[in-house]
Amino acid sequence: MPVTQAPVWNFYAGPAALPRPVLQQAQDELLDFAGTGMSVMETSHRAKPYVAVQADAAARLRELMGIPDTHRVLFLQGGATLQFAMVPLNLRRAGQPAAYVHTGEWAGKAFQEARKLGDTTLLGSSEDTRFDRIPSLGSPPEDLAYVHLTSNETVQGIQWQAWPELGDAPLVADMSSDILSRPLDVGRFGLIYAGAQKNLGPSGVTVVIVRDDLVARGPASLPTMLSYATHVKADSMYNTPPTFAIYLLREVLAWMAKEGGLEAIAARNRRKAARLYGVIDKHPDLYRGHAQREARSHMNVTFRLPDPAIEQAFLKLAEAHGLVGLAGHRSVGGCRASIYNAMPEAGVEALALFMEGFARQGA
Ligand code: PMP
Q1: Closest Cα to atom 5, ligand 1: which residue?
Q2: Ligand 1 atom, smallest distance to 206 CA
Q3: For residue 15, is the peptide bond before it cis, meaning its omega torsion is within 30 degrees of 0?
Q4: How far is the CA of 195 from the centre of ligand 1 (A)?
Q5: Is 198 a catalytic residue?
Q6: Residue closest to 168 by CA, chosen among 208, 213, 134
Q7: Which residue in the list 132, 160, 174, 178 is annotated as catalytic?
Q8: Residue ranges of the alpha helices (H) in the chain?
Q9: pLDDT of the chain along its 363 residues, tens only?
């Protein structure tokens, strides 16, 4: 009997909700994948059935995102966090600093890692207003190795809504928490990376999309596993890839195509975000949105209630109503509703109604 709806609505920031039909299919074929008589987890990564899965995952990602021929798709491990190091290790060039935009928790971590590894500069920061906006950027210095930004700050709930014009330096983006949430001109970016566990699949696989000319930049002295060139040459099979995670990622991509692709998903995401921000705006005495309006994230809706005791009461009651995972990140507290692609509008509606009811009760 297919289970089409979750018993709870999952608002965790990541790992996060996966589309129910994807989980259902994984369950159906868990013991016998594609007539092999074994699980996809037990299949050699060099055997045809699995090789086809990985190739199809890359092809589907290309198709959905419109990735141009100039860019390679890689499936790596180590999370987005390892990319904080791999990007500067591979893309920095002698005499050229790497530039970062500091918009919150994750941009800060990427910046700190790059600083450990060489010459790094800050192009802008919104720290002075507790990362509630995208900072305006001065004109960038000449001769940057690359410019790094975090397209969506998962913790603060801040999202870039337009890309900066920054001259010739390749743009590098951590898109861990909003990849595939909206159409994107991939050609504008030198490199995009994303841990899978929000919009792409389960944790354990990291997608990297990198322009050909940047792959060759890495010095020969890099440890083999830290070099993009290694993984491009081996088609992400230099060592054993996280096969089950990639299999699920492929199923998520197939689900997205069935849902109408990026335009349809983006329209749904806009409606979902508008519904929750609408409730926040309607009850400003109770719900205090963190992000300034023009920087509001469509993926992570962050807000506070008047004091921690009310927040705790809100979270407890929400959980009793089957609304799970609404506590803010441990570094900032407050509340956060993560509404990635797999969160249906019905789940957002359930939360919006709950928030309205809670506001009425308290009023
Ligand atoms: N960047 C962003 C924007 C994130 O949200 C996260 C994880 N929440 C990370 C990087 C770190 O990802 P990982 O745990 O895959 O290393």
Answers
A1: 154
A2: 15
A3: yes
A4: 6
A5: yes
A6: 213
A7: 174
A8: 20-28, 48-65, 79-91, 105-117, 212-215, 228-233, 243-258, 261-282, 308-320, 345-362
A9: 455 567 899 999 999 999 999 999 999 999 999 999 999 999 999 999 999 999 999 999 999 999 999 999 999 999 999 999 999 999 998 889 999 999 999 999 999 999 999 999 999 999 999 999 999 997 888 899 999 999 999 999 999 999 998 888 999 999 999 999 999 999 999 999 999 999 999 999 999 999 999 998 999 999 999 999 999 999 999 999 999 999 999 999 999 999 999 999 999 999 999 999 999 999 999 999 999 999 999 999 999 999 999 999 999 999 999 999 999 988 888 999 999 999 999 999 999 999 999 999 864
Q: Which atom of ligand 1 lies nearest, measured to the CA of 155? A: 5
Atom of ligand 1 nearest to the CA of 175: 3
Q: Minimal CA–CA distance to 19: which of 240, 343, 287? A: 343
The residue whose CA is least distant from atom 10 of ligand 1 is 80
Cα angle value 319/323/326 (rounded, 5°): 85
User: Which residue, by CA, sits nearest to atom 14 of ligand 1?
Assistant: 79
Q: For the beta carbon of residue 2, count every other beta carbon within 10 angstroms.
A: 9
Cα 37 to averaged position of ligand 1 atoms, centre (Å):
36
Give which of 313, 311, 322, 325 is closest to 353, Cα–Cα: 322
Pairing of strands 98-102, 146-150: parallel
Nearest CA to ligand 1 atom 3: 176
Ligand 1 center–CA 106 separation, angstroms? 7
B/e letters for 160-187, b = 16+ CB within 10 Å, e = fewer, are: beeebebeebbbbbbbbbbbbbbebebe
From residue 330, give the alpha-carbon distance in Å to each of 169, 334, 337: 35, 9, 14
Residue 257 in 3-state DSSP? helix
